[in-house]
Design brief:
By secondary structure, the chain is of the alpha+beta class. It has two domains: 2-137 and 244-367, no CATH class; 142-233, no CATH class. The protein contains eleven helices and five strands. The chain has a five-stranded antiparallel beta sheet with strand order 1-2-3-4-5, with no helix packed on it. Helix 4 (58-83) packs antiparallel against helix 6 and helix 9 runs parallel beside helix 11 (342-367). The chain is elongated. It starts with a helix and ends in a 6-residue tail after the last helix.
């Protein structure tokens, strides 16, 4: 009997959790994906690269929203059982409320390990792959670099400016400054002026008309080469969309080694106080945030003690949802200060761990006069 009840409760929870997580991830990811369109329109990456990069960030969004989805699913599951009078049936059949509390605690531990897996292993790996994808991708659309009356420096050491874009797709008064890249047969430190030009159909070459090339040699001498028409291949160039991985894209093992002083050669790792603090904060985000989930699960269990005859019954769901939400927000804010010192780190971890048995004992005390079985 109990196993059937537990299975039914768990199934309902998983259904609500999946729906809330999917809906919230879809909304946030869509908004984020729209912002990523700059990778195509501004930086000239291929649309395929944009799609793969956007999909790889799904794990980051999901990891962030797991705590909120757990809170919402816990509240909705208990409210659903209460609304359908299923809780009353369980109590009258002799099932004590503390059994449901224990079930919620076990479910929260499962979700906690899920978030730990996502935050410590899967998320850094997928984010690192997305960074490598941008780093190794070539410029696909030259036209994305040609913004009317804007200096575009999306490509490292290369600046492009056009005075006017005409309706027929041509450009007037084109300026190109090369501070290190090699464009076709032109050496580094070159400046190109052209009266007009246009992008060739393959979207990787720029045809310049009636202009000159100013080259500076190692001794500072300037030579000028005039041309009537010349073509520059920009297809092999890569944009400077950050090539080094950010700290959230670094593997957990490398971060731990960095904190222990074993791998200072790793990017974002160093012996100075700032780097060590940032590494601690990132580690605490990955391992500390999931610890708050069991506490959230027990907070939601206070809905089991509500009584319909109480005047504030209809506000219980809002009160406990607000309490749970404030705990999540407080955890998100406090983790940013957890890397300041060892004391701050210990307070961050022991706060949820210390409150958990206190809340659990209070629930036992609250339900001790219920039917026992």
């Amino acid at each position: 009997m109990k196993k059937r009840i537990y299975k039914y409760f768990f199934t309902e929870f998983v259904r609500y959790f999946a729906v809330v997580l999917f809906a919230s991830v879809a909304i946030v990811w869509t908004i984020q994906a729209v912002n990523f369109l700059d990778l195509v329109t501004e930086d000239g990456h291929a649309f395929k690269i944009y799609m793969i990069y956007s999909l790889l960030t799904l794990t980051k969004v999901a990891t962030k929203l797991i705590p909120f989805s757990f809170l919402a699913a816990s509240i909705l599951t208990i409210l659903k059982f209460d609304k359908d009078n299923e809780l009353i049936i369980l109590w009258t059949s002799g099932l004590n409320k503390i059994h449901i509390v224990n079930l919620m605690l076990r479910i929260s531990i499962i979700i906690m390990f899920l978030q730990l897996l996502m935050s410590s292993i899967i998320n850094p790996e997928t984010l690192n792959k997305s960074r490598s994808l941008l780093k190794n991708s070539e410029l696909q659309f030259v036209s994305s670099l040609l913004k009317e009356r804007q200096f575009n420096d999306a490509v490292k050491a290369l600046t492009i400016f056009v005075d006017k874009k005409n309706e027929d797709g041509t450009y007037d008064n084109i300026f190109i400054r090369d501070d290190g890249q090699t464009i076709s047969n032109i050496s580094s430190s070159s400046t190109i002026f052209a009266k007009s030009g246009y992008v060739i159909e393959d979207q990787k070459k720029l045809l310049l008309i009636d202009g000159n090339i100013q080259k500076i040699d190692s001794q500072g001498n300037v030579s000028i080469i005039k041309f009537q028409e010349t073509t520059f291949d920009l297809g092999g160039l890569t944009t400077k969309t950050t090539s080094e991985p950010k700290i959230q894209e670094t593997s957990t093992k490398k971060l731990i080694d960095c904190m222990l002083g074993k791998s200072e050669a790793t990017h974002n790792c160093g012996s100075d106080k700032k780097n060590i603090s940032e590494s601690k904060i990132e580690i605490n985000k990955r391992f500390g945030m999931p610890i708050f989930l069991p506490l959230i699960g027990l907070i939601c269990c206070f809905l089991l003690s509500s009584r319909r005859e109480r005047k504030i019954y209809n506000y219980y769901k809002y009160i406990f949802f607000l309490i749970g939400f404030l705990i999540l927000v407080s955890a998100e804010i406090s983790v940013r200060y957890s890397g300041i010192s060892f004391t701050h780190t210990m307070i961050y971890y022991f706060l949820p761990i210390g409150l958990l048995p206190l809340v659990y004992l209070y629930l036992i005390k609250t339900f001790k006069y219920e039917n026992l079985n």
